[in-house]
From TrEMBL, chains A, B:
GO molecular function terms listed in the Swiss-Prot or TrEMBL record: DNA-binding transcription factor activity; transcription cis-regulatory region binding; zinc ion binding
CDD domains cross-referenced by the UniProt entry: Fur_like
Binding site for Zn(2+): 105, 108, 151, 154
Protein name as it appears in the record: Transcriptional repressor
Amino acid sequence: MIIFFIEVKDLPESWKDVFHRFNKKATSSRRAILEVFEEKGQHLSAEDVYEHLRAKKKKVGIATVYRNLDLLLRMGILRKVNFGDGREHYEMIRRAARFHHHLICTRCGQVVDCEEMTQEEEEFLQHLRKELEQRQGFVIHSYHIYFYGLCPRCR
Amino acid sequence: MIIFFIEVKDLPESWKDVFHRFNKKATSSRRAILEVFEEKGQHLSAEDVYEHLRAKKKKVGIATVYRNLDLLLRMGILRKVNFGDGREHYEMIRRAARFHHHLICTRCGQVVDCEEMTQEEEEFLQHLRKELEQRQGFVIHSYHIYFYGLCPRCR
DNA sequence: ACCTCAATGAAAAATATTATCATTTTCCAT
DNA sequence: ATGGAAAATGATAATATTTTTCATTGAGGT
């Protein structure tokens, strides 16, 4: 019984610890924003997040949304992605580890997440990464592939 | 003598034909913008292009720069690239064919073009493309890889 | 429970991009 | 070459997105 209690209490609380590790306050806005990403998932713009929060009756100012998207970015919880529609989008890196690439329809703008790669693909990219690191003197910590084309409906 | 004349006259004129094929006028602004990309090269923002034009004593309104970047995009001469700095950048596709990836320093924002890939790399990406096309029902016409990390000075 | 400082909301400001419209330029037909 | 129709441009206004300001609120340590 006690073990059960610790489990359900501990799991949703873990973000709090993350904020504390960064000397940031685990405010209700921040938790609500993370909740949106966990529920609604992929690549949301600031406006998207703002709207989803309103839909959940959780009013957070748009400036706070922007501030916290940037914070979560610097904390390494979100990453920026861009589909050429004039606004920045964000997605959880935890999710990005599984859904790595993006396929973008250049006609209707639809964006599809592509699931994880095969072993072979993973190895290839490690190889390419090492080669670029040597050639350019960079330390590469991540990468992102965008594929452009026409979706089933537009082709 | 006649042949010589045709040659030097024809080569710099070829953009004119491209515009005509699209039923667009080969105006001096348009040619000046293309000249900037041919001289200054990679991934310029609208503002970058505008500044380079002024430096060349060629005054083109910023609105015209935006309009023509969009036109050249639709004509398939430029492509958009994005480095998360809040503005769109453009580069020539002709050049993109050789300089394919981008390496972005997440600390100072420096962007490095990476030269063309090996045969092996090219084959791998063709393979990945075909697989995605089948899995998602897309027709993929291009792709773009961004690598993120720290440049030699920031590491 | 209090106190401090970070976080927030509302609104203004800064940036980037697009639309409007009168004027200029291209280019086709003469 | 010249004239005229239509497209392109410049200047500016409008819009969209993101950031800043500053007074007020709230989190979390004591």
